[in-house]
Amino acid sequence: MKQAIGVIDSGVGGLTVAHELMRQLPKEKLIYLGDTARCPYGPRSKEEVKQFTWEMVDFLLEKNIKMLVVACNTATAFTLKSLKEELDIPVIGVIQPGARAAIKFTRNNHIGVIGTEGTVRSHAYTNALRNIKSELEVNALACPMFVPMVEQGILEGSQAIEVVEDTLAPLLQYSNMDTLILGCTHYPLIKDTIQSVIGQHITIISSSEETARETSTILDVHQLFNKDDIYPVHQFYTTGDLEIFIEISKSIFKEPYLQMVTIEKAYLHQLQDS
Amino acid sequence: MKQAIGVIDSGVGGLTVAHELMRQLPKEKLIYLGDTARCPYGPRSKEEVKQFTWEMVDFLLEKNIKMLVVACNTATAFTLKSLKEELDIPVIGVIQPGARAAIKFTRNNHIGVIGTEGTVRSHAYTNALRNIKSELEVNALACPMFVPMVEQGILEGSQAIEVVEDTLAPLLQYSNMDTLILGCTHYPLIKDTIQSVIGQHITIISSSEETARETSTILDVHQLFNKDDIYPVHQFYTTGDLEIFIEISKSIFKEPYLQMVTIEKAYLHQLQDS
Question: Which stretches of chain B are assigned E, i.e. beta strand?
């Protein structure tokens, strides 16, 4: 019997999606795999991202998942289409949910998107948005400093503000956006800092929250909801350093979620061979 | 070729869903049927609501719709399950999307729901919410004055405030809600009045906006998006007085949406016979 939702990410960013899944779908068991050993995916080639993503998917398929959440924008941008075509379970990425939420929120049809180089280079958000609503004006900006900063645990304070101010300055200068999509699952961790820099008049869309919500919709459509009223134990895996992954998990999940998680080291086939 | 999204409602309330569908999915053609001749559905029996709803569905199926949106909370509460079981096109109601959005927004797990007598009596929102997240506290209140008030065009001003204040007083007294679901598609028309009465600290969820967004998700899952970049002409039908329906449509749609709509009188099989 297929019971769990599989979640993959290039590292710890997808933990913000996992946290939202736990909050919005507390009866659903998660199996999470973060490829922290090879993070970040943002600057990598399309081929490399596809290969790494498929290795993660194979790891989770062996654990008999009922649905796959690609909780990494770069992996979504480059592999969602082929995953949807080739897997016989429902697959959701983080891009479409963020795009749909932005379309719902914007009133002036000007949307900003920030993400990694890979995500911005792929035009995945611009395409997702404009395929649905052609008249949208979309301004996308790559923020290569944000992921390394978050991975170092710098989430607020003067240094964080300075990096965010400097990075977003061009976007704020040329865009009339009323809605900004956080097109990287690391960014919700610095959402407050970003909001303080851009001002309260711009609505921030967290692709993590929105993806959790659409996961709920898709489980509903496919009648895959877990009906049991038992709170699950989630299995988390990292390809990288276990201690660092546990530390970051603690900062994201806090109680009561942390006590519902086991964290182990994962050995992917490709990594074992090399 | 199936091209349009079918939308049914007991009257004009579903026009708020139609408006959101046009705004969020501007490439999709709508065929709307409002059963204004037999509105309101709120006080009717389950059997009557089911019969009327199926008569509307039959009318739209003859027009070859690719998806059905049940834009009436009462009809959703009583017929969604059988429609999903018996139709071979995707069906969405207004209750699940509102419930999912409320779960996303609430931080204290206290959710309020207002709707018609029928919707509240059915416990449809409470069930939808607690099936996903058992620990939610849900307080539902029937507001039988709101639909007749909206149908009379009283949307703001001292009379509207007085009715809303008197009606919501018990809910505000016993509920600690941080999120309130407008569980009736008429209510978005008095959203500003409701917000002024309950205060800015409570997030209002419009099931209309949320249903349009989930319609987008479901079209995506089933690969039913219209890819053509041509703006459609929407066909609207009413079983009741054509002039009144046109007047209310004008107040909801304004430009540029109104010029993309044709409005005609509908004759349902059952109504023709009686």
Answer: 4-9, 30-34, 65-70, 91-93, 110-115, 137-142, 179-182, 203-206, 234-238, 261-265
